[in-house]
Amino acid sequence: MDESNSIGIVTAQRAQFDTPLTFRSGAVLPRYELVYETYGKLNADKSNAILICHALSGHHHVAGTYADQPKNVGWWDNMIGPGKPIDTDRFFVVGLNNLGGCHGSTGPSSIDPQTGKPYGSSFPVVTVEDWVESQARLADLLGIKQFAAVIGGSLGGMQAMQWSIAFPERVRHVLAIATAPRLTTENIAFNDVARNAILTDPDFHGGDFYQHGVVPTRGLRLARMLGHITYLSDDAMAGKFGRGLRSGEYKYGYDVEFEVESYLRYQGDKFAAYFDANTYLLMTKALDYFDPAREAGDELARAFAPIKADFLVVSFSSDWRFSPQRSREIVKALLHNRRNVSYAEITSTHGHDSFLMQHQQYFDVMRAYLDNVAREFSV
Asked: What is the mean pLDDT of residues 142-160?
Protein backbone atom coordinates (compact mmCIF):
# COMPACT_ATOMS: atom_id res chain seq x y z
CA MET A 1 0.00 0.00 0.00
CA ASP A 2 1.28 3.47 -0.91
CA GLU A 3 1.46 5.19 2.50
CA SER A 4 1.83 8.64 0.90
CA ASN A 5 -1.84 8.80 0.00
CA SER A 6 -3.33 5.93 1.93
CA ILE A 7 -6.54 6.53 3.82
CA GLY A 8 -4.82 4.82 6.74
CA ILE A 9 -6.51 2.94 9.56
CA VAL A 10 -10.21 2.21 9.08
CA THR A 11 -12.88 0.56 11.21
CA ALA A 12 -15.82 -1.56 10.13
CA GLN A 13 -19.27 -0.57 11.37
CA ARG A 14 -22.46 -2.56 11.77
CA ALA A 15 -26.04 -1.47 11.11
CA GLN A 16 -29.04 -3.47 12.34
CA PHE A 17 -32.40 -3.35 10.53
CA ASP A 18 -35.58 -4.58 12.21
CA THR A 19 -37.93 -3.77 9.34
CA PRO A 20 -38.56 -6.99 7.38
CA LEU A 21 -37.07 -7.16 3.89
CA THR A 22 -39.16 -8.92 1.26
CA PHE A 23 -36.97 -10.51 -1.37
CA ARG A 24 -37.84 -10.64 -5.04
CA SER A 25 -38.45 -14.37 -4.61
CA GLY A 26 -41.17 -13.64 -2.06
CA ALA A 27 -39.07 -14.77 0.90
CA VAL A 28 -38.96 -12.45 3.90
CA LEU A 29 -36.00 -11.71 6.17
CA PRO A 30 -37.50 -10.34 9.43
CA ARG A 31 -34.29 -8.62 10.52
CA TYR A 32 -30.72 -8.37 9.29
CA GLU A 33 -27.40 -6.62 9.69
CA LEU A 34 -25.10 -4.93 7.18
CA VAL A 35 -21.41 -4.39 7.81
CA TYR A 36 -19.95 -1.30 6.18
CA GLU A 37 -17.05 1.15 6.18
CA THR A 38 -16.92 4.85 5.40
CA TYR A 39 -14.01 7.01 4.24
CA GLY A 40 -13.76 10.80 4.11
CA LYS A 41 -16.27 13.26 5.54
CA LEU A 42 -19.90 13.87 4.64
CA ASN A 43 -20.37 17.54 3.76
CA ALA A 44 -23.00 19.80 5.32
CA ASP A 45 -25.79 19.10 2.81
CA LYS A 46 -24.74 15.43 2.42
CA SER A 47 -24.28 15.81 -1.32
CA ASN A 48 -20.78 14.31 -1.66
CA ALA A 49 -21.53 10.65 -0.87
CA ILE A 50 -20.37 7.82 -3.13
CA LEU A 51 -21.53 4.21 -2.79
CA ILE A 52 -19.14 1.42 -3.82
CA CYS A 53 -20.90 -1.81 -4.83
CA HIS A 54 -18.75 -4.91 -4.67
CA ALA A 55 -18.38 -7.80 -7.09
CA LEU A 56 -18.76 -11.54 -6.48
CA SER A 57 -15.98 -12.06 -3.93
CA GLY A 58 -15.83 -8.47 -2.65
CA HIS A 59 -16.91 -6.97 0.64
CA HIS A 60 -17.07 -3.82 2.75
CA HIS A 61 -13.30 -3.42 3.23
CA VAL A 62 -12.72 -1.33 0.13
CA ALA A 63 -9.82 0.90 1.22
CA GLY A 64 -7.32 1.46 3.99
CA THR A 65 -6.14 -1.11 6.51
CA TYR A 66 -6.97 -2.30 10.01
CA ALA A 67 -4.97 -1.41 13.12
CA ASP A 68 -4.65 -5.06 14.12
CA GLN A 69 -4.22 -6.35 10.54
CA PRO A 70 -1.80 -3.98 8.78
CA LYS A 71 -1.48 -6.29 5.77
CA ASN A 72 -5.25 -6.47 5.22
CA VAL A 73 -5.51 -3.73 2.60
CA GLY A 74 -8.87 -2.83 1.05
CA TRP A 75 -9.58 -4.49 -2.30
CA TRP A 76 -9.80 -1.15 -4.17
CA ASP A 77 -7.23 0.78 -2.16
CA ASN A 78 -5.40 1.80 -5.33
CA MET A 79 -8.55 3.67 -6.44
CA ILE A 80 -9.79 5.21 -3.18
CA GLY A 81 -8.00 7.61 -0.86
CA PRO A 82 -6.64 11.16 -0.58
CA GLY A 83 -5.73 12.42 -4.05
CA LYS A 84 -6.74 9.16 -5.75
CA PRO A 85 -9.41 9.00 -8.46
CA ILE A 86 -12.11 8.47 -5.81
CA ASP A 87 -10.70 11.24 -3.66
CA THR A 88 -11.61 10.99 0.04
CA ASP A 89 -10.57 14.60 0.54
CA ARG A 90 -13.66 15.47 -1.50
CA PHE A 91 -16.00 12.49 -1.30
CA PHE A 92 -17.63 10.55 1.53
CA VAL A 93 -17.27 6.96 0.40
CA VAL A 94 -19.40 4.05 1.63
CA GLY A 95 -18.53 0.40 1.09
CA LEU A 96 -20.63 -2.49 2.39
CA ASN A 97 -20.84 -6.27 2.47
CA ASN A 98 -24.04 -7.32 0.73
CA LEU A 99 -26.75 -9.47 2.24
CA GLY A 100 -25.88 -13.12 1.81
CA GLY A 101 -22.20 -12.28 2.17
CA CYS A 102 -19.69 -13.95 4.45
CA HIS A 103 -17.83 -10.94 5.83
CA GLY A 104 -20.17 -9.89 8.61
CA SER A 105 -23.47 -8.97 6.96
CA THR A 106 -26.34 -11.38 7.49
CA GLY A 107 -25.84 -14.42 5.30
CA PRO A 108 -26.04 -18.22 5.23
CA SER A 109 -23.35 -18.62 7.89
CA SER A 110 -25.13 -16.19 10.27
CA ILE A 111 -27.20 -17.51 13.14
CA ASP A 112 -30.94 -17.57 12.48
CA PRO A 113 -32.47 -16.14 15.70
CA GLN A 114 -35.53 -18.36 15.23
CA THR A 115 -33.54 -21.60 15.26
CA GLY A 116 -30.28 -20.72 16.97
CA LYS A 117 -28.45 -22.40 14.07
CA PRO A 118 -26.81 -21.01 10.89
CA TYR A 119 -29.30 -20.15 8.15
CA GLY A 120 -27.51 -22.47 5.75
CA SER A 121 -29.82 -23.72 3.01
CA SER A 122 -32.75 -21.71 4.38
CA PHE A 123 -31.20 -18.35 3.51
CA PRO A 124 -33.22 -16.81 0.65
CA VAL A 125 -31.85 -16.61 -2.88
CA VAL A 126 -30.92 -12.95 -3.26
CA THR A 127 -31.02 -10.72 -6.33
CA VAL A 128 -29.39 -7.46 -7.36
CA GLU A 129 -32.74 -5.77 -6.77
CA ASP A 130 -32.77 -7.06 -3.17
CA TRP A 131 -29.29 -5.75 -2.55
CA VAL A 132 -30.13 -2.30 -3.87
CA GLU A 133 -33.20 -2.14 -1.63
CA SER A 134 -31.08 -2.99 1.42
CA GLN A 135 -28.42 -0.48 0.36
CA ALA A 136 -31.08 2.23 0.12
CA ARG A 137 -32.05 1.47 3.70
CA LEU A 138 -28.43 1.89 4.77
CA ALA A 139 -28.34 5.23 2.95
CA ASP A 140 -31.45 6.26 4.87
CA LEU A 141 -29.74 5.35 8.12
CA LEU A 142 -26.74 7.48 7.16
CA GLY A 143 -29.02 10.39 6.23
CA ILE A 144 -28.01 10.27 2.55
CA LYS A 145 -30.98 11.19 0.38
CA GLN A 146 -29.02 11.19 -2.87
CA PHE A 147 -25.63 9.76 -3.85
CA ALA A 148 -23.28 11.89 -5.89
CA ALA A 149 -22.33 8.60 -7.55
CA VAL A 150 -22.83 4.87 -7.30
CA ILE A 151 -19.82 2.95 -8.58
CA GLY A 152 -19.21 -0.71 -9.23
CA GLY A 153 -17.30 -3.17 -11.37
CA SER A 154 -18.64 -6.47 -12.72
CA LEU A 155 -21.52 -7.56 -10.44
CA GLY A 156 -21.04 -4.22 -8.68
CA GLY A 157 -21.74 -2.45 -11.96
CA MET A 158 -25.05 -4.28 -12.21
CA GLN A 159 -25.98 -2.94 -8.78
CA ALA A 160 -24.99 0.58 -9.83
CA MET A 161 -27.27 0.31 -12.89
CA GLN A 162 -30.12 -1.04 -10.77
CA TRP A 163 -29.76 1.94 -8.44
CA SER A 164 -30.43 4.30 -11.34
CA ILE A 165 -33.52 2.29 -12.35
CA ALA A 166 -35.05 1.66 -8.91
CA PHE A 167 -34.15 5.01 -7.32
CA PRO A 168 -33.69 7.50 -10.18
CA GLU A 169 -33.98 10.50 -7.83
CA ARG A 170 -31.36 9.17 -5.44
CA VAL A 171 -28.30 8.94 -7.69
CA ARG A 172 -26.76 11.68 -9.84
CA HIS A 173 -24.02 9.66 -11.51
CA VAL A 174 -23.38 5.98 -12.21
CA LEU A 175 -19.94 4.58 -12.99
CA ALA A 176 -20.50 1.11 -14.47
CA ILE A 177 -17.20 -0.68 -15.03
CA ALA A 178 -16.51 -4.01 -16.77
CA THR A 179 -20.14 -4.98 -16.53
CA ALA A 180 -23.13 -6.03 -18.64
CA PRO A 181 -26.90 -5.49 -18.78
CA ARG A 182 -27.28 -9.27 -18.35
CA LEU A 183 -25.11 -12.36 -18.56
CA THR A 184 -24.51 -14.18 -21.80
CA THR A 185 -25.55 -17.83 -22.06
CA GLU A 186 -21.88 -18.79 -21.85
CA ASN A 187 -21.49 -16.89 -18.58
CA ILE A 188 -24.53 -18.59 -17.09
CA ALA A 189 -23.00 -21.92 -18.14
CA PHE A 190 -19.70 -21.10 -16.39
CA ASN A 191 -21.61 -20.21 -13.23
CA ASP A 192 -23.58 -23.45 -13.34
CA VAL A 193 -20.44 -25.56 -13.63
CA ALA A 194 -18.90 -23.68 -10.69
CA ARG A 195 -22.04 -24.18 -8.59
CA ASN A 196 -22.17 -27.87 -9.42
CA ALA A 197 -18.62 -28.30 -8.19
CA ILE A 198 -19.91 -27.10 -4.80
CA LEU A 199 -23.32 -28.79 -4.87
CA THR A 200 -21.82 -32.21 -5.60
CA ASP A 201 -19.10 -31.98 -2.95
CA PRO A 202 -19.94 -34.66 -0.33
CA ASP A 203 -19.13 -32.15 2.41
CA PHE A 204 -21.76 -29.67 1.18
CA HIS A 205 -24.65 -31.45 2.91
CA GLY A 206 -27.30 -29.54 0.97
CA GLY A 207 -25.95 -26.23 2.24
CA ASP A 208 -26.04 -27.18 5.94
CA PHE A 209 -22.41 -28.22 6.26
CA TYR A 210 -21.90 -25.91 9.26
CA GLN A 211 -23.77 -28.33 11.49
CA HIS A 212 -21.52 -31.18 10.35
CA GLY A 213 -18.31 -29.36 11.21
CA VAL A 214 -17.00 -29.59 7.65
CA VAL A 215 -16.42 -27.27 4.69
CA PRO A 216 -16.95 -28.24 1.01
CA THR A 217 -13.37 -27.25 0.28
CA ARG A 218 -12.96 -29.36 -2.83
CA GLY A 219 -16.02 -27.92 -4.55
CA LEU A 220 -15.27 -24.33 -3.59
CA ARG A 221 -11.67 -24.77 -4.68
CA LEU A 222 -12.70 -26.03 -8.11
CA ALA A 223 -15.31 -23.28 -8.49
CA ARG A 224 -12.70 -20.63 -7.80
CA MET A 225 -10.17 -22.19 -10.15
CA LEU A 226 -12.72 -22.17 -12.96
CA GLY A 227 -13.79 -18.62 -12.19
CA HIS A 228 -10.22 -17.37 -12.00
CA ILE A 229 -9.49 -18.66 -15.50
CA THR A 230 -12.38 -16.59 -16.86
CA TYR A 231 -11.22 -13.42 -15.09
CA LEU A 232 -7.87 -13.46 -16.89
CA SER A 233 -7.10 -13.06 -20.57
CA ASP A 234 -5.20 -15.62 -22.63
CA ASP A 235 -2.41 -13.09 -23.17
CA ALA A 236 -2.16 -12.38 -19.43
CA MET A 237 -1.93 -16.06 -18.59
CA ALA A 238 0.58 -16.71 -21.37
CA GLY A 239 2.71 -13.74 -20.36
CA LYS A 240 2.71 -14.68 -16.70
CA PHE A 241 3.16 -18.45 -16.96
CA GLY A 242 3.58 -19.53 -20.57
CA ARG A 243 4.17 -23.27 -20.64
CA GLY A 244 6.66 -23.05 -17.82
CA LEU A 245 7.31 -26.22 -15.86
CA ARG A 246 8.03 -26.19 -12.15
CA SER A 247 10.82 -28.76 -12.47
CA GLY A 248 11.88 -27.94 -16.01
CA GLU A 249 10.84 -31.32 -17.39
CA TYR A 250 7.75 -33.51 -17.84
CA LYS A 251 6.95 -35.91 -15.00
CA TYR A 252 4.36 -37.93 -16.94
CA GLY A 253 1.79 -37.87 -14.14
CA TYR A 254 -1.14 -35.89 -12.75
CA ASP A 255 0.53 -33.86 -10.03
CA VAL A 256 1.24 -30.17 -10.56
CA GLU A 257 3.76 -29.74 -13.38
CA PHE A 258 2.95 -26.47 -15.17
CA GLU A 259 3.34 -23.15 -13.38
CA VAL A 260 -0.23 -22.19 -14.27
CA GLU A 261 -1.50 -25.33 -12.52
CA SER A 262 0.38 -24.36 -9.37
CA TYR A 263 -1.05 -20.83 -9.54
CA LEU A 264 -4.66 -21.98 -9.97
CA ARG A 265 -4.44 -24.49 -7.15
CA TYR A 266 -2.93 -21.87 -4.87
CA GLN A 267 -5.75 -19.44 -5.70
CA GLY A 268 -8.35 -22.16 -5.16
CA ASP A 269 -6.92 -23.19 -1.80
CA LYS A 270 -6.63 -19.61 -0.59
CA PHE A 271 -10.20 -18.77 -1.58
CA ALA A 272 -11.67 -21.94 -0.05
CA ALA A 273 -9.99 -21.10 3.24
CA TYR A 274 -11.96 -17.89 3.80
CA PHE A 275 -15.01 -17.74 1.51
CA ASP A 276 -18.37 -19.35 2.25
CA ALA A 277 -19.69 -21.91 -0.25
CA ASN A 278 -23.33 -20.84 0.17
CA THR A 279 -22.36 -17.22 -0.43
CA TYR A 280 -20.63 -18.26 -3.65
CA LEU A 281 -23.85 -19.94 -4.82
CA LEU A 282 -25.93 -16.87 -3.95
CA MET A 283 -23.58 -14.43 -5.67
CA THR A 284 -23.46 -16.38 -8.91
CA LYS A 285 -27.25 -16.75 -8.95
CA ALA A 286 -27.62 -12.99 -8.50
CA LEU A 287 -25.41 -12.57 -11.55
CA ASP A 288 -27.57 -15.00 -13.54
CA TYR A 289 -30.87 -13.38 -12.59
CA PHE A 290 -29.97 -9.75 -13.31
CA ASP A 291 -31.83 -8.78 -16.47
CA PRO A 292 -33.64 -5.41 -16.30
CA ALA A 293 -34.88 -5.80 -19.89
CA ARG A 294 -36.76 -9.01 -19.04
CA GLU A 295 -39.78 -7.14 -17.67
CA ALA A 296 -39.60 -4.46 -20.36
CA GLY A 297 -40.43 -6.56 -23.39
CA ASP A 298 -36.77 -7.61 -23.62
CA GLU A 299 -35.91 -4.03 -24.59
CA LEU A 300 -33.06 -2.53 -22.56
CA ALA A 301 -33.93 0.98 -23.68
CA ARG A 302 -37.41 0.62 -22.19
CA ALA A 303 -35.94 -0.72 -18.96
CA PHE A 304 -33.65 2.31 -18.78
CA ALA A 305 -36.46 4.82 -19.33
CA PRO A 306 -36.72 5.82 -15.62
CA ILE A 307 -33.01 6.67 -15.40
CA LYS A 308 -32.07 10.28 -14.66
CA ALA A 309 -28.41 9.80 -13.73
CA ASP A 310 -25.45 10.62 -15.93
CA PHE A 311 -23.21 7.65 -16.74
CA LEU A 312 -19.59 6.73 -17.20
CA VAL A 313 -19.28 3.27 -18.77
CA VAL A 314 -15.82 1.67 -18.87
CA SER A 315 -14.82 -1.57 -20.60
CA PHE A 316 -11.51 -3.35 -21.22
CA SER A 317 -10.31 -4.72 -24.55
CA SER A 318 -9.20 -8.14 -23.23
CA ASP A 319 -12.22 -8.75 -21.00
CA TRP A 320 -13.96 -11.65 -22.73
CA ARG A 321 -16.30 -12.44 -19.85
CA PHE A 322 -17.82 -8.93 -19.81
CA SER A 323 -16.76 -7.77 -23.24
CA PRO A 324 -16.75 -4.19 -24.56
CA GLN A 325 -19.69 -5.15 -26.77
CA ARG A 326 -21.82 -5.58 -23.64
CA SER A 327 -20.82 -2.15 -22.36
CA ARG A 328 -21.75 -0.63 -25.70
CA GLU A 329 -25.24 -2.12 -25.30
CA ILE A 330 -25.57 -0.10 -22.09
CA VAL A 331 -24.36 3.05 -23.83
CA LYS A 332 -26.78 2.57 -26.74
CA ALA A 333 -29.78 2.13 -24.41
CA LEU A 334 -28.82 5.23 -22.42
CA LEU A 335 -28.40 7.33 -25.57
CA HIS A 336 -31.81 6.12 -26.76
CA ASN A 337 -33.19 7.75 -23.60
CA ARG A 338 -31.15 10.91 -24.20
CA ARG A 339 -29.09 10.41 -21.06
CA ASN A 340 -25.64 11.93 -20.71
CA VAL A 341 -23.16 9.09 -21.07
CA SER A 342 -19.38 8.92 -21.45
CA TYR A 343 -17.75 5.73 -22.67
CA ALA A 344 -14.15 4.55 -22.44
CA GLU A 345 -12.76 1.32 -23.84
CA ILE A 346 -9.38 0.74 -22.22
CA THR A 347 -6.67 -1.29 -23.92
CA SER A 348 -5.52 -3.78 -21.32
CA THR A 349 -4.09 -7.30 -21.22
CA HIS A 350 -5.46 -8.21 -17.80
CA GLY A 351 -8.90 -9.49 -18.84
CA HIS A 352 -11.87 -9.01 -16.53
CA ASP A 353 -9.56 -8.32 -13.59
CA SER A 354 -8.49 -5.09 -15.34
CA PHE A 355 -11.02 -3.09 -13.33
CA LEU A 356 -9.01 -3.85 -10.19
CA MET A 357 -5.63 -2.98 -11.70
CA GLN A 358 -3.77 0.32 -11.56
CA HIS A 359 -3.80 1.23 -15.24
CA GLN A 360 -2.88 4.82 -16.09
CA GLN A 361 -5.46 5.45 -18.82
CA TYR A 362 -8.22 3.84 -16.77
CA PHE A 363 -7.33 5.88 -13.69
CA ASP A 364 -7.13 9.07 -15.75
CA VAL A 365 -10.64 8.46 -17.09
CA MET A 366 -12.01 7.82 -13.60
CA ARG A 367 -10.25 10.86 -12.17
CA ALA A 368 -11.43 13.21 -14.93
CA TYR A 369 -15.05 12.11 -14.61
CA LEU A 370 -15.07 12.34 -10.82
CA ASP A 371 -13.39 15.75 -10.94
CA ASN A 372 -16.48 16.95 -12.78
CA VAL A 373 -18.76 15.26 -10.25
CA ALA A 374 -16.94 17.03 -7.41
CA ARG A 375 -17.55 20.43 -9.05
CA GLU A 376 -21.27 19.97 -8.40
CA PHE A 377 -20.91 20.45 -4.65
CA SER A 378 -18.74 22.13 -2.03
CA VAL A 379 -16.93 20.12 0.62
From this structure: 98
